[in-house]
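anyone else get weird line breaks when pasting these?? whatever heres mine. first is seq + tokens for prot A
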Amino acid sequence: MRAVINISTTILVAALLTVQLTACVPIAVGGAAVGGSMAADRRSSGIYIEDHEIEIKADNQISRQLGDKIHANVNSFNRNILITGEAYDEESKAKAESIAKTIENVKNITNELVIGPTSSLSSRSNDAYITSKVKANLLSQNRFPGVYVKVVTEKSSVFLMGIVTHKEAEDAADIARNINGVTKVTKVFEYMD
């Protein structure tokens, strides 16, 4: 009887360990994917993480302070913030920028908020589709490593961010400009040359 209890206990412990270890696989694989994208990025890993923190802090502060007066998307690349979306009025647009300026370590702010009603779900879906097409073309055309460019789309206008050469910036803008559905391309780059 004691041998059956020991075997049952061993099987139970092994099953529990297996379940616990399999939970580590997505974390390890996800961590490797993030690490891989950071390795291909021209930002240091510290700046990469800091950009993510800046986005979260700015987004939370803007949402908290302005509420329904704004639909803002905050993107940060190398501590340069791009704010897109819609504001209820000029005062709300200016306030969003003021709030973003209070976030620690921000170097520059590009405020591309437009005054008007909040974009629809179909408009946002179309923007996500355009972003995916631009990213896919940046990679497939292989003029330079496409991961150097962050693509943001708002109401069919494409904003390009990153640390690039002037040639890479022109190539990225050319690729984005030739995607069906893109109405405007704005370069928000930091140049290395």
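and prot B, same format (seq, then tokens)
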Amino acid sequence: MYKITIFLLVFIAWFLVFLVFKNSKMYFLKFLAGSVGVFTICMIFFMPYLEGALNLLISNTLAIIGRGIRIFEVFKDNSIISIDTKDGIVAMVINYECSGVIEMLVFTSLAFFFPFGGFTRKSLSLIFGNIYIFASNIIRILFIAGAVKLLGASSYYLVHTLLARILFFGLTVLLYYYTFTSTQLKYQKVGEI
């Protein structure tokens, strides 16, 4: 009951601030308050539930892929990926960092309040954008598993910490460019600020 009361108070406070900016026609502040507010509320109150669901979805997806390519083994109950290399076994735990939940929340928060298109376009952008982030995350994990299998256990830190993050970052920038930047350029009139 305590958490529900706090959630309702935070939600009402955020919604009132959002309405003030909306009614004052301060569009940037409305976008900022809306995006940051939804992201913060979701991170505080819904993160464990979203993370658990995404970990399960990622583990099941990787288990299906893993049976086909046989590079790694997935322990779905513990969200662990085991990669047998020439140097030894590497175990990778899928946690909030590997689940992509933060990236999905950021994208959803931004896309929900970004002023482009109607309800249908916004809904499709939210659905396909989150599917794209999920697929990019699967690609990143497959890249880690493949590179560690090929290069050995000693390469795990470099591959996971640097190379896979660069890959995921590049894929995410591509999504943001298509969703936000190209849309803004397409609908902006010349000379408009």
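btw re prot B: The two ends are 47 Å apart (CA to CA). Residues 4 and 45 are 9 Å apart (CA to CA).
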